[in-house]
Design goal:
Helix content of chain A: 25-40%
Largest sheet of chain A: 7 strands, mixed
Largest interface: A-B, 82 and 82 residues
Strand order of the largest sheet of chain A: 1-2-3-7-4-5-6
Structural class of chain A: alpha+beta
Strand content of chain A: 5-15%
Distance between the termini of chain A: 22 Å
Oligomer: homodimer
Chain lengths: ~325, ~325
């Protein structure tokens, strides 16, 4: 959660504790869960998260994938019976920090994405993260939901104007729903692409790919509409040095990213970015000046600490 | 090419021969290329395509990935110094036909996709294919460019109304270009998502992920704006039975796909589909009634056969 808060990914930061406390109160979260290795061999492994939060099994899984990929060049670890694991990019970054490429997917607990041509949400916002090590500077880091926007973006919009762009959510008849509050309750988000004309079947297909890798590969139960269900994760690590047979990957990625950043921008004041640039810049700012938490969130966190019987670590200002 | 033609993916069918003949005439294609194994080990390999068409090295690469994934559960093979390989889905399907999950990416020879916030095309339409084996019926098969539409869709539009939907291509100032003929010449397509509001940074990020896997992982030269450059491919095979430790993957995928296909449709006459359904249905039709080739294409193919000094295999009707 701190990893996300530092990078400005507030939807996966400390605010997640409110969601986790609700899950615990509803008996849907085993806080004392132990991660168990179901099976493992040289290049693959299967973990069971014990029905707890996903952060711990996900970190163990990527650690095992990294270790194996350093031996054999490629490795995959699947996790079943897990829970929400925060930002997928946190685990993909673990690979990049060790000179490897990391790919991470997870399904989501509640359906929120409507298939192209469909009237009801059938899949989660099913994120995909990809990280690759550069020669210098922070890793290339793509961390995206496969919907046009994640649920958190709709939630943020309820607090602002309350109006959504027309391609983010639909009503039961497939028409754009531009009322943020109603759209948040209805959970009928569009797949990336927005509508048929915009090729939303591709976003829908990506969400399905993520569902298969995250739930069917580890053998987790697929979603049942409207109810909470099991969450699974997929982790892949690749060693570019082993596959290429040389150490040129990082420098080649530096050149590619430099070419993109130097390419002509529509607005000279807003240079072309690559995936991860925005979050890296925010991390630099927040490491210097701290992570802003709004007053309501601080009070919520204080309440959680009190109900959990632990000291609240932040002083009020 | 036949694989694509049978499935109605006409952009990658026999019509591709026109493009390949132009490449050959321009000296950009070594037709007598030999595929060479640069290095290999238990779970990975690197091939060199010898500067020829990609079809042969891609098929060899996925064959090697499948063989290794059956031994170790996961394998990846990268190809450099290759060429256009047709439909990415053809190689991903090879894995699914053998009970494995297949992932395939390739870069493209000419830039056609404009980064979010950028004014010039910097990446190709960089496709991604994913195939997974079902218990019964054809595999799940996602085969998509990471742009809103591939270049071929723009070309097809020049023959029809000549007007494009507003989210497909842009002019130099980032405004929608709805003139199909002009957009085809300008090659300034949008990443999946269409514009900033539609999260085009995700399509751009996916195109960049594909570029990294297809060119930097095998050590192929990255694109240089406007010029032809080397093409590389990335192949990944995963064995669900090995990773899960049981044979339940296919049946679980059947259930997931059945649930999606049975989900409420906006138009009851157009049921919700899953990736690959449309192509599979078209293949059923074309296997029965043949592949329609329009007269102009048949004449083009006859000309290619004549210039290549080979018999033309199709009788005129």
């Amino acid at each position: 959660m701190t990893w996300a808060d530092v990078r400005g990914i507030d939807s996966h930061g400390a605010g997640s504790l409110l969601h986790y406390e609700r899950l615990r109160a509803a008996g849907k979260l085993t806080l004392a869960a132990e991660t168990r290795v179901v099976r493992e061999d040289e290049a693959t492994a299967l973990l069971d998260g014990g029905g707890g939060l996903g952060h711990v099994p996900a970190e163990i899984a990527m650690g095992m994938a990294i270790e194996r990929a350093r031996e054999g060049g490629v490795a995959t670890v699947a996790v079943r019976n897990s829970g929400h694991f925060g930002a997928a990019g946190a685990y993909a970054s673990m690979a990049a920090q060790r000179g490897l490429i990391g790919v991470v997917t997870t399904n989501a607990a509640r359906p929120a994405v409507v298939p192209t041509g469909g009237a009801e949400a059938m899949l989660g916002t099913n994120p995909l993260a990809f990280a690759a090590p550069t020669g210098s500077g922070p890793p290339l880091l793509l961390d995206m939901s496969t919907s046009t926007v994640p649920v958190g973006r709709i939630a943020v919009s309820t607090r602002r104007a309350g109006r959504l762009p027309s391609g983010w959510a639909t009503d039961r008849r497939g028409r754009p729903d531009r009322n943020a509050r109603r759209a948040l309750a209805a959970r009928r988000l569009t797949p990336l692409g927005g509508d048929e004309e915009g090729s939303s079947h591709k976003g829908y297909g990506l969400a399905l790919m993520v569902e298969v890798l995250s739930t069917l590969l580890p053998g987790t139960a697929p979603p049942s509409s409207g109810e909470s269900h099991e969450i699974g994760h997929f982790m892949l690590a690749l060693d570019p040095a082993r596959i290429r047979g040389d150490d040129g990957f990082g420098a080649a990625l530096d050149r590619l990213l430099a070419r993109l950043r130097a390419s002509p921008a529509l607005d000279p004041a807003r240079p072309v970015l690559v995936a991860g640039d925005r979050e890296h810049a925010e991390a630099e700012r927040r490491r210097a000046s701290g992570v802003p938490l709004d007053r309501a969130l601080v009070e919520d966190l204080r309440g959680i600490a009190s109900r959990a019987g632990v000291d609240f670590p932040f002083a009020s200002r």
